[in-house]
Input
Amino acid sequence: MCGIPWQLSGINNKPEAVSKIIVGTPVLAGVGSLFKTHGLSKKTVVLFDEHTRKLYGETILQKLHDEGFQYQELVVPAREASKSFSAAYRLYGSMIEADVDRSWNLLAVGGGVVGDLGGFIAASYFRGIPVIQLPTTLLAMTDSSIGGKVAINHPLGKNLIGFFHEAELIMIDPAYLATLPRREIYAGMAEVVKYGFISDEPFFSFLDLHFSDIMNLQEPFLTEAIKKSAFIKADVVEKDFRETSGLRATLNFGHTFAHGLEKLAEYRYLRHGEAVTIGMVCALFLSHHLGYLDQPSLERGLALLQKFRFPKGLVKRRFLDIDSALLLEAMLSDKKKLDKKLRFVLLKKLGEAFLLEESVEESLVLKSIDEGRRFFSRKPAH
Ligand SMILES: NC(=O)c1ccc[n+]([C@@H]2O[C@H](COP(=O)([O-])OP(=O)(O)OC[C@H]3O[C@@H](n4cnc5c(N)ncnc54)[C@H](O)[C@@H]3O)[C@@H](O)[C@H]2O)c1
Ligand SMILES: [Zn+2]
Output
């Protein structure tokens, strides 16, 4: 574990924030005693999507069997549409039929879709049972499994129906990433890089230096990047659980732009992390134009974001070819706006973000989008 140039600064003195996060390979070794330590029964509903069931189902269920668990298995299609009330309703039925009661818990095995849906079901079933997250995407390991926000989608908007229901345990095993498509790894990497931008300059430098090592799943870089990201998120969430102080909102760096892009892409053609990567480029320019971020920091930030790769033609179709005014309109219609005002998370420097309370002139937002456009047009790889 040599060559890691940073420490878990400011996080070691907050053990309660991270005590529920276990990182290791195989993370399920000793799962029975781990559940016991955390006050969880060995009666578990295991929720997979079709992909995670096929890839890891047998091994996980065998392990639970060996450790003396009573389990009930549930599987949903591997798509965003599974985060729906109809899917939840069907799963409640299977659980009632299997006599699952309040003495049970739910283990969600998958990416953010399974994590959000599993959390939603756990929060509501019999007025709430514990949820345990076993994330299998980079995004889920570093972001969606942590922080207790669980939700399903409504036809009128994403993540509109949900709860705050924190996981009792988050079991992270980076080895699951070996089967994850590269596009999904980039998408998760966007959130990892975001943590460097918003809260930790040494981590930013580490990511800059080891970007390709992490993308190639090289250890110890991969595990360190995951741990650090997960701990930053847990720390931020603990300090501002219900998003009252503006701190938790800094996790939305790049997201005001991203949500508009995702909406225009009908939440189908762009991965969330891809939209966030583009959004962070625009947010860097905006931070610079408003006088918060100096030129050298802007350039360092852009150089890191330059390393991301997208499927051929995607950025052109989903960003470069889109009218800026249309994007602005989509951003304004996003649910996270307050008083019809666009809210932006900006950088003061690399490693320090804040939520800007004042509204930003539309012309400056448009200018930042246009500069983002120029940035991506310069990139032949797109
Ligand atoms: N709750 C939160 O705080 C929060 C935060 C961010 C995102 N989210 C939600 O997360 C969801 C996106 O999550 P995601 O990006 O993990 O997508 P996902 O769950 O759709 O997973 C992406 C794809 O990878 C597959 N997969 C998962 N693990 C795999 C593995 N190890 N090997 C091979 N394939 C694997 C899945 O089956 C799926 O096809 C969205 O619904 C979003 O709203 C929630
Ligand atoms: Zn995000």
